[in-house]
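User: Show me a protein chain along with its predicted structure.
Assistant: Here is one chain, sequence first, then structure tokens.
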Amino acid sequence: MSTFEFFLGYAIMVTMTANWTIDIQVDPGYRRLLKVRRLRQIAVAVLAAEAVKPGAKLSLVLTNDDTVKELNRKYRGQDKTTDVLAFPLGEDSAAFVSPPRAAAHLGEVVISYPQASRQAKEAGHTLEKELALLIVHGVLHILGYDHQRAAQGQRMRAREQAILGQIFD
């Protein structure tokens, strides 16, 4: 079941699947360029592949370079745009307190639509494939994967490829 809400001009699609709630916020400038249902399917595929506990919530934001650059500067100390940012809100997070018995909010994945578009062209594949890669990458970060060390990076890339293989088969 999906509902649409509007907040500060953003279309927010709240989708409750059989197992999870996926909130998708799309910058007004990109609303007509995206298939929101497909973005939801990709996010759900990652949660299913990683056997995430039913009832969990995930937020996905598609926005512009300026917004991502500001978030990257504020939270990572890097004053530049990037393709995807992940803000985990897991059980260990002191930054977000859920009400008792509320579904776990896993976190928020923020994607720069323009950066994704540029990367798709550079890689020679579709924007859908690039967005899928960024969603998978961001959700895996939310779930605790990292690539700071070589072994971690290999493990994360292997999971990305396995999940992308499931999505595009």
